[in-house]
TrEMBL record:
<dbReference type="InterPro" id="IPR033659">
    <property type="entry name" value="Ferrochelatase_N"/>
</dbReference>
<keyword id="KW-0350">Heme biosynthesis</keyword>
<feature type="binding site">
    <location>
        <position position="147"/>
    </location>
    <ligand>
        <name>Fe-coproporphyrin III</name>
    </ligand>
</feature>
<dbReference type="InterPro" id="IPR033644">
    <property type="entry name" value="Ferrochelatase_C"/>
</dbReference>
<protein>
    <recommendedName>
        <fullName>Coproporphyrin III ferrochelatase</fullName>
        <ecNumber>4.99.1.9</ecNumber>
    </recommendedName>
</protein>
<keyword id="KW-0627">Porphyrin biosynthesis</keyword>
<comment type="similarity">
    <text>Belongs to the ferrochelatase family.</text>
</comment>
<feature type="binding site">
    <location>
        <position position="78"/>
    </location>
    <ligand>
        <name>Fe-coproporphyrin III</name>
    </ligand>
</feature>
<comment type="function">
    <text>Involved in coproporphyrin-dependent heme b biosynthesis. Catalyzes the insertion of ferrous iron into coproporphyrin III to form Fe-coproporphyrin III.</text>
</comment>
<feature type="region of interest" description="Disordered">
    <location>
        <begin position="1"/>
        <end position="23"/>
    </location>
</feature>
<comment type="pathway">
    <text>Porphyrin-containing compound metabolism; protoheme biosynthesis.</text>
</comment>
<keyword id="KW-0963">Cytoplasm</keyword>
<feature type="compositionally biased region" description="Low complexity">
    <location>
        <begin position="405"/>
        <end position="414"/>
    </location>
</feature>
<feature type="binding site">
    <location>
        <position position="313"/>
    </location>
    <ligand>
        <name>Fe(2+)</name>
    </ligand>
</feature>
<keyword id="KW-0408">Iron</keyword>
<keyword id="KW-0479">Metal-binding</keyword>
<keyword id="KW-0456">Lyase</keyword>
């Protein structure tokens, strides 16, 4: 969807008046859990990692080997684990600087350190109340509910249900700490592409901004943010899509106001996987680039708005494939950084933690779009799992750990994806 008016649409349909039912009272937590996707750290890890990601789908190793090539091309190493180590260290440093005595624990969905073992180690060390921060900012099954299921399943399988409590911070797609690095990066990216065009003798050539995020099945997109007890209408019929559009509009508005730079923009998708007959969100970024080149666009700024760090799906799908598409079409192009360990992002995550703690509490809950601040407690049935019932924490109707709810899960929709979703 093209947004030709960079100043327009900063507040989209679906404005969220935060209700008391969606906001949790502060607690005395005794640890922070950083939860992420995980990734292989050597060639021998790649197939076992992909087996973890696709468990239960009956995909043979021969097919997994076909989809492993972006890892193989990088020595079998995904950047994501090292990025999580760096983010963990940055969070620990910021917590210490604020006098907040909370250790940061780290657990992954699909690779060591695994979430169940992290929870068991936490309990053995004396922890009883953990607050989870995930490396996923938006609302959909794989970027929110699946993490809640990961914890619910782990608490059940380890026998820690009722003994270890785990809550989760709100989805932070429009928290200033997440958005500010993209504002800086988009302004710098526009300036860079303009400089490339000027050096080529075409300083006034048209430029387009592509906000890129992970594609998901359209059924998952339609279920994102849906709740039987609080019907809401979202732009494009999906909280996942609406959150990206609203955040993108906020970024463009700030860039234009602060730098005077502007350009039309679109939301595009990447990293599709799964059965070809299953509809996913479109357009694909490479198709969009080709279409824009056909319309006379000469410069492209790629903003990885859906992602927290420069993991494999940024390094491969954007830095390798999308930028190669731009080069092949003769387009000036650049890719904007993800938040990573940007000071504002780390500060923002600690602010999100402090929203939920009794000590050093922050009562203000900032949001740069009309959709937020998002809920602390997910609404009943939100981001449904269409594959079956699973124990789930941090929902309005939960009973495992901090609770359990059971709704149907989206198809296992990716082979090796590690982004946010």
């Amino acid at each position: 969807m093209t947004r030709p008016d960079p100043a327009g649409g900063a507040v989209l349909p679906g404005t969220n008046p935060v209700t008391e039912a969606g906001r949790m009272a502060p607690k005395n937590y005794d640890g922070v859990l950083l939860a992420s996707f995980g990734g292989p750290e050597g060639q021998d890890d790649v197939i076992p990692f992909l087996r973890n990601v696709t468990r239960g789908r009956g995909i043979p190793d021969e097919r997994l080997e076909e989809v492993s090539q972006h890892y193989r091309a990088n020595g079998g190493i995904s950047p994501i684990n090292q990025q999580n180590r760096e983010l963990k260290a940055a969070l620990e440093a910021e917590l210490r600087a604020r006098g907040i005595e909370l250790p940061v624990l780290w657990g992954n969905r699909n690779w060591d350190p695994y979430i169940p073992q992290t929870l068991q180690d936490a309990y053995d060390a004396g922890h009883r109340k953990l607050l989870m921060v995930t490396t996923s900012a938006y609302s959909c099954y794989s970027s929110c509910r699946q993490y809640r299921e990961d914890i619910g399943i782990a608490l059940t399988e380890t026998g820690l249900d009722g003994r270890l409590e785990v809550d989760k911070v709100r989805q932070y797609f429009d928290h200033p700490g997440f958005v500010e690095p993209f504002i800086e990066g988009t302004a710098a990216g526009l300036a860079d592409v303009r400089a490339q065009l000027a050096a080529a003798g075409t300083p006034d050539a048209p430029v387009h901004i592509l906000f890129a995020t992970h594609s998901i099945p359209t059924r998952d997109a339609e279920a994102a943010g849906r709740s039987a007890d609080e019907p809401r209408e979202f732009d494009e019929g999906s909280a996942y899509v609406a959150q990206h559009l609203a955040t993108g509009a906020a970024v463009i508005s700030r860039v234009q106001a602060e730098s005077g730079l502007t350009a039309p923009w679109s939301l595009v998708y990447q990293s599709r996987s799964g059965a070809p007959h299953v509809p996913w969100l479109e357009p694909d970024i490479n198709d969009a680039i080709a279409d824009l080149a056909g319309q006379g666009i000469k410069g492209i700024v790629i903003v990885p708005l859906g992602f927290v760090s420069d993991h494999m799906e940024v390094v491969w799908d954007l830095d390798t494939e999308a930028l190669e598409t731009c080069r092949n079409l003769g387009l000036a192009a650049t890719r904007v950084p993800t938040p990573g360990t940007h000071r504002k992002f780390v500060n923002g995550l600690v602010d999100l933690i402090s929203e939920r703690t009794l000590a050093n509490n922050i009562s203000d809950r900032p949001a740069v779009t009309g959709l937020g601040p998002w809920y602390d407690v997910c609404r009943p049935g939100c981001c449904a799992n269409f594959r079956g019932e699973k124990p789930t924490i941090a929902g309005a109707d939960t009973t495992v750990g901090t609770g359990h709810d059971a709704y149907p899960a989206a198809p296992a929709d990716a082979a090796g994806r590690e982004g946010t979703p």
